[in-house]
């Protein structure tokens, strides 16, 4: 089983392609799929490719809920339970409120769905804040606390600190929402490597596990997601593409078309079922109170509606039942799947439109789509699958883990972006859902100002990408706006949800001064260029503004200035260079020249320039040519001095100030206020945790001490007066805990525990010594037996006993023999003395003293063992009679041949090397 486990891990490493580049020093990274209903966290750490982080209940997903009650902050399912009893104190489904002003239709819809929340307007930012008693929390602060909890889960799984993450976001999030989410992550002490759209993350996860199926031919898929809050469909392509720069061929996932419906999801279905159950309860007239006026009753109905909705996905009917729904009245009624589908009929009618809009945006038809892949909890509803099958006229793909696919795809991306890992490259190209354009005013031919619009990022433009706009007609300070535009592909209901369509206003200053200082007769202006970028998180920004102009610079090259050595070096390099290299150099020169021509248009030559570049045969020139004595002098003069015009491009920065026109972001002051608020909650939580831990430790110690003293093995190790003192202290502490000490702080509990430990330390130490001594003596006995066996073998490896294997000296053998003898005598004497003592008297033969004796004996044995390991036999001189006879014969033959040889030199044979058999015998003998 263990071998199978390691094989599976190895296969996973190869398949996922994630390797830690820095070994154990690599830092773990995480991803968060922050859904409106559930939060999933994935982590990749050194040695562990990818895994889902478990929460404290060992579950793979956590409810995106946050509750405040009695000074405590509660997360997940515990917060859901609080929400049933105190719905105004438990908060969820607020992710879509990020970056929204208080008058946004999304906020109005949220108030309608959850009427028991106290939602107010932030006086400084006009954004949404939740009032909880005397405290208020912004949406960014609530999201930050959820991200903190996700960070905690990831760190416990990876067993190290985590500071970097990739966050999964809905694709329809605009600039305001994305900026707010980045701020929330910063409040949670997380650096966002990237915001990745949910369908892109799912597509990446799908492609990584099917990399061997991707080739040079594009394959088209549709990923259909129905979550709790929204529904989206994305048309993507998978294809192997060769990078022109690196010449590497990598798989690429490209988003080609997206359609979405912000209000179509499982939450709306659950709310409709909740309201239906509420109306049915009112019809029963069990109480005069309207159930819609009671927040607690509505919260109970909402929870039960969610349970019934899930059950109806697998059953045709089910009973909804709630004990003591309102005024101690129980509620129970049967709900059929048919009734549920009739309640959501208009919602189901909107299911096909999402996928149709995605196909229309991509320009593709279902004929070329390989498969429609489902993910998201809402796609488990049978009616949704039935409608989709009729729409696409093919089977649906259900081979994705709809809960974890986005988190796993995002964590793969996180490993790719992090510095501590090496990942098999998988390129992602996302698409713009909300087009962006620049609007500015320019003076027309009639002198009137007219508005000009230039599209920067059109619908479905890929990103990350950079764009440049050139302003040619402006000669003084001016401003331009950046707005959402070309929103015809969105529904009329969706556009109000976007909020402000104006993103930012850019004001340029010192334009006239810059033009005056840098533009003259020898300069050609290329205009004022504004550089924009949309990064891989889908966040738009202005990179900078600059004046670009070209000017002609005349370079003079004089051959006489070149030293003889440089001339010689140039000549030699030409002689030894191949024709191929020369041709390649010419090609490079030509490509550079061609690139220059593409990047800049050269200035028309002036009269002086024409004169400089004119040859002697060129007609129509006004150049005055001096007399030349002969052609030789002319060639010398031409070689000595040559004038070459060169076009140089110069960029001069222009100051710019950007003012955001959508929801105001967190300023530094507001950010610090939010940070202090969250830090105060964290500190309060730590103090509460510390107090609970100290209280539990003190209670456990008091109970355990009283129980131990009732046992013979402990009471025999204590003096009567010690038992009396401990029992008295335990009784007093127990009474204090249930009276005055019930509200004490953590420090008081910790001090009480220290005092009790001082009183019990001696008793517990004696008990420990008596309990552990037999095992320590047993270990010492084993070491003595092993040492004696080694000594017996070592005596055969001395010069006196074995001349060929003189490993050890007599002194070394005697030293080991003495250590064994003294240790044995010490043990026998100490055991005899210890047996005379009672268990409650000070211990004579301690475990520590036994370990020290073992250490001394072990040191002596190890010294001899190491010497044996490095010992090598000495070289020997062998001179047999046969060898002597052969030598005499050779000498006689040499004399006959009148050759002189050295007769006095000794004959040296190869040293004997012990065979493997000898080694084996030696080891077995030892």
Could you describe the 3D structure shown?
- With 926 residues, the chain is α+β, with helices and mostly antiparallel strands.
- The strands form eight sheets. It has a seven-stranded mixed beta sheet with strand order 20-19-14-15-16-22-25.
- The chain starts with a helix and ends with a helix.
- A hairpin with a 6-residue loop joins strand 9 (119-121) and strand 10 (128-132).
- Helix 4 (139-158) crosses helix 5 (175-187) and helix 6 packs across helix 13 (405-417).
- The radius of gyration is 43 Å and the shape is globular.
Determine the number of helices (DSSP H or I, runs of at least 4 residues): 26
What's the total number of strands?
Answer: 32
Largest sheet: 7 strands, mixed
Radius of gyration: 43 Å
- From the spread of the alpha carbons, the general shape counts as globular
How far do the termini sit from each other?
Answer: 36 Å
- How confident overall, as mean pLDDT? 83
List keywords for this structure.
926 residues, alpha+beta, 7-stranded mixed sheet, 6-stranded mixed sheet, 32 strands, 44% helix, disordered C terminus
